[in-house]
């Protein structure tokens, strides 16, 4: 068997999350079915980060052990010919069998795109979040600084989270306004279940003036999920990059692919933004 790495892009509104389910309506189910058509055999896959229902990805990293020899182009163009419109394999690369899409990763990059206007968007339905009242992006940016570093994120994890530890290290947490859009960028070694959506929900409370700028710092110290804001919509959340050690020489390392142009105004597009420590 040869271990192969794929970069996969998908629109999450068409699927019930990444992880395979008996009903088969997940990204993993669609991908494995397509790969099996190329291999003429089952092809189990492992991803860098399992995304929830409605969450999108511009760069989901996946590995599998190919049961048969196929050219890399078959795992891209061949698989894409069997995938639904909402999923696309962007590239494929062979690696040694000690590579692991999840455990070899050193960081994940997520972006949340929020439309901040009085009327809900129609053309970007399911591709952006929405909040109708004006938000103070500067206040949210200041509040997000408290998240940087190693912390216990119990106040921002889902009740169903199965992670052994709530401690995570956030490399950066940024909030910027681009016209009617507010963009949240997060990078960490890993994230807890619903962690980013819970962080965005808390930041929106600060942005609308319901809580002070230091509220997120207070929540971190309190470690009580019931005191924090509700989980925000999945619609605007994108997995947009996964980092690995240089030894793997994967395409695009040192850069992230941010949200597609459809989901952002032109002034906000950074198709090859450099990773920032």
Automatic annotation (TrEMBL):
The keyword Phosphoprotein belongs to this UniProt entry's keyword annotation: no
Enzyme Commission identifier(s): 5.4.99.12
Pseudouridine synthase I TruA alpha/beta domain segment(s): 8-103, 143-245
Residue numbers binding substrate: 110
Class in the EC hierarchy, top level: isomerase
Top-rank taxon: Bacteria
Signal peptide positions (record): none
Keywords: Isomerase, tRNA processing
Gene3D superfamilies, sorted: Pseudouridine synthase I, catalytic domain, C-terminal subdomain, Pseudouridine synthase I, catalytic domain, N-terminal subdomain
Biological process terms in GO annotation: tRNA pseudouridine synthesis
Parts of the chain that traverse the membrane: none
InterPro entries in the cross-refs: PsdUridine_synth_cat_dom_sf, PsdUridine_synth_TruA, PsdUridine_synth_TruA_a/b_dom, PsdUridine_synth_TruA_C, TruA/RsuA/RluB/E/F_N
Reaction it catalyzes: uridine(38/39/40) in tRNA = pseudouridine(38/39/40) in tRNA
Active-site residues from the entry: 52 (nucleophile)
MF terms in GO: RNA binding; tRNA pseudouridine(38-40) synthase activity
Role of this protein: Formation of pseudouridine at positions 38, 39 and 40 in the anticodon stem and loop of transfer RNAs.
Assembly mode: Homodimer.
Protein name: tRNA pseudouridine synthase A
Organism: Denitromonas halophila
Lineage of producing organism: Bacteria, Pseudomonadati, Pseudomonadota, Betaproteobacteria, Rhodocyclales
Gene: truA
């Amino acid at each position: 068997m040869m271990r192969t790495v794929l970069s996969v892009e998908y629109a999450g509104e068409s699927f019930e999350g990444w992880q395979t389910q008996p009903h088969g309506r997940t990204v993993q189910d669609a991908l494995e079915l397509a790969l099996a058509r190329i291999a003429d055999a089952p092809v189990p896959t492992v991803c860098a980060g399992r995304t929830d229902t409605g969450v999108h990805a511009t760069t989901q990293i996946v590995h599998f052990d190919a049961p048969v020899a196929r050219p890399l182009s078959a795992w891209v163009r061949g698989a894409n010919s069997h995938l639904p419109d909402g999923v696309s394999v962007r590239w494929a690369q062979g690696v040694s069998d000690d590579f692991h899409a999840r455990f070899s990763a050193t960081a994940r990059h997520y972006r949340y795109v929020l439309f901040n206007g009085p009327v809900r968007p129609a053309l970007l339905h399911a591709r952006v979040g929405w909040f109708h009242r004006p938000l103070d992006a500067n206040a949210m940016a200041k509040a997000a600084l408290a998240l940087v570093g190693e912390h216990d994120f119990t106040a921002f994890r889902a009740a169903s989270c199965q992670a052994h530890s709530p401690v995570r290290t956030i490399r950066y947490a940024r909030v910027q306004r681009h016209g009617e859009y507010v963009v949240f960028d997060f990078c960490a070694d890993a994230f807890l279940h619903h962690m980013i959506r819970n962080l965005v929900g808390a930041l929106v409370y600060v942005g609308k003036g319901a809580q002070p700028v230091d509220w997120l710092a207070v929540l971190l110290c309190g470690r009580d999920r019931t005191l924090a804001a509700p989980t925000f919509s999945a619609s605007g959340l994108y997995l947009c990059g996964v980092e690995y050690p240089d030894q793997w020489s994967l395409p695009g390392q040192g850069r992230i692919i941010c949200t597609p142009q459809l989901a952002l105004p032109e002034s906000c597009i950074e198709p090859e933004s450099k990773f920032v420590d």
